[in-house]
Every structure is written in structure tokens, then in C-alpha cells.
Amino acid sequence: MIAGVTNYLSQHPSIVAFRWSHTQSWGSTWSFLVTSIAFYLIVSVMTHLFLCLLVRRGKPVSLGPIPALH
């Protein structure tokens, strides 16, 4: 059984024939990394500013049981 699993994980034709290609794996490029981080930061800042304008309270918003459930 172990030999079968080892053969499947290391000698399978799709594993043996694998070749790395930047054109097929665009998620591994520097431009994707930089764009993803920039997009995340922009969305985070915009959400924060929107919520600051929407909710003008001096005290924190109660989350109730959400942290316990999480």
C-alpha cells in the first residue's frame, strides 16, 4: 500500500511531466503579488474610511456573540 501511494505521489505521469511555466501560473509572478497587496491595502483603507464616516461613535461597536462563535 505504501509503495502504491509513493508511486502515485512521485511517479505519476502528471507529476513526472510537470514543467514550471510563468505563462500558465500567473499567480506566482511579482506583478500579481504587488497588485494583490496594493489592492488589499486600498480596499482596507477605503472600508475603514467609509465606516469612520458612517459610524460616528465615541465608543466601540458591540459585536455580541460573534467573537465567541468565531
Describe the structure.
- Keywords: Membrane, Transmembrane, Transmembrane helix.
- The protein is mainly α and 70 residues long.
- It has a domain of 31 residues.
- It contains four helices and no strands.
- The protein is elongated, with a radius of gyration of 23 Å.
- The mean pLDDT is 84.
Strand content: under 5%
Question: How many helical elements?
Answer: 4
Give the H and E element order: HHHH
Distance between the termini: 39 Å
Mean pLDDT: 84
How many E-type strands? 0
- Tell me the major beta sheet: none
Looking at how many chains there are and whether they match, the oligomeric state comes to single chain
Described by the principal axes of the CA atoms, the overall outline is elongated
Low-confidence stretches: none
**Rg (CA only):** 23 Å
Helix content: 55-70%
Structural class: mainly alpha
Task: From the structure above, extract its key features.
70 residues; mainly alpha; 60% helix; transmembrane helix
List the helices and strands and how they pair.
Blueprint: H1 2-10, H2 13-16, H3 30-54, H4 66-69
Transmembrane segments: 30-55
Keywords: Membrane, Transmembrane, Transmembrane helix
Quick summary:
60% of the residues lie in helices and 0% in strands. With 70 residues, the chain is mainly alpha-helical.
